Amino acid sequence: MSDTNQSNGTPNGQKGPIIPKSANEALRPERVPDPPKRSRKARSQMVIFLNFLMTLVVFVIVLAIIGAYYAISAYQSPGPLATNSNFIVRSGAGLAEISNRLEANNLISDARIFRYMTATNLHDGETLRSGEYEIKAGASMKDIMELLKSGKSILYSVTLPEGLTVRQIFNKLQADPVLEGELPSALPAEGSLRPDTYKFTRGTKRTEIVQQMAGAQEKLVDQIWQKRDPNLTLANKQEFVTLASIVEKETGLADERAHVASVFLNRIGKGMRLQSDPTIIYGLFGGDGKPSDRPIFQSDLKKETAYNTYIIKGLPPTPIANPGRDALEAVANPWKTQDLYFVADGTGGHVFAATLEEHNANVKRWRKLVAEKGEDPSAIAVDGQPDDGAATTTGSGTQQKKKTN
């Protein structure tokens, strides 16, 4: 073997003679060379800080992802409410207040999640609206947010039937436990409020209902007045509403109101007094109405008031109640009849007559029905009845005396 070959077998390519090694030396591990030293640039404080910052950013992002997933999951998961419950959002309440109150009432599990998630779900101009809401059992925070955003709060209602006076309407509004605030200090004009059922949310003011009623009645009267019979002899809307209020109080049957209206219009056309019991009652008791246990006496027919149509000619100075649509339409488009009288028929309606003779016969039949029921017919007044008990001229009978308390 040449020297060249021998040199190639030396460690590290070094040239020289081969030095034999002992067995211990041959088995001894060779020294591992030191790793290369880091550059000055890699060891700088800036690089160390940037590395730390990157690590921190990654850590925060991971936490944010985990937190967002948890918040979204909690926001959409069923809530803790076991049974349906009402919740009131007061006017002007902010998102923080609403969130805290929801949690305090055990409607949601976490006010902070509701607050922040709701804020991200509300678009420009959207807000949680005031009102009283029914929260369903198990409703999620998202469900609650959608409900409060919709404004579909619980609706209450107050029913104000036809024929009530303004004062009686005010008494009903005052007694309603959900409505708030005081009523107007001055009573609106009689006949100016529309009878109807009005829906409202908790927190609605009593004055708001009165305003709704006034606006609705004005609109209704204008609409019906414009479509009135062109031959109607009433001069203006005031007379129109006044007669409608009398018709409203005279009969509770919608299908005979136009007939009753024709009787009163025929009497006005002939210069006859209306002789309507409800006008007597209003003249005596005003908007408070007649006590239920107080009958109409013969002496009442002769008491001078501005509303006693047994004494005055034509219509009274104002309406005597608030008429509804049916009564207004009946007066605007009355039946074409020659009838001048009507009296109760004992079955809830009336029987009409064009002549006094026919009417007297109807009154006798009615008195017989009353007597058969065990009542004293002489104790019950008939409109226009004279002192001796013989019927002469009349409007309605006893059916309406019960109705116009």
From TrEMBL:
Bias-annotated ranges (Polar residues): 1-13
CDD domains per the record?
A: MltG_like
Q: Tell me, in one coarse class, where this protein mainly resides.
A: membrane
Q: Where is this region: Disordered?
A: 1-39, 375-405
Bilayer-spanning residue ranges: 47-72
Protein location: Cell inner membrane
Q: Where is the composition biased (Low complexity)?
A: 389-399
The annotated topology with respect to the bilayer is: Single-pass membrane protein
Q: Which keywords are on file for this protein?
A: Cell inner membrane, Cell membrane, Cell wall biogenesis/degradation, Lyase, Membrane, Transmembrane, Transmembrane helix
EC assignment: 4.2.2.29
Q: State if Cell membrane is listed as a keyword.
A: yes
> Is Cell wall biogenesis/degradation one of the keywords?
yes
Stretches with biased composition (Basic and acidic residues): 27-37
Q: Catalytic activity, per the record?
A: a peptidoglycan chain = a peptidoglycan chain with N-acetyl-1,6-anhydromuramyl-[peptide] at the reducing end + a peptidoglycan chain with N-acetylglucosamine at the non-reducing end
Q: Name one GO molecular function term.
A: lytic endotransglycosylase activity
| Name of the protein this chain belongs to | Endolytic murein transglycosylase
Organism encoding this protein:
Rhizobium rhizogenes (strain K84 / ATCC BAA-868)
* Gene of this entry: mltG
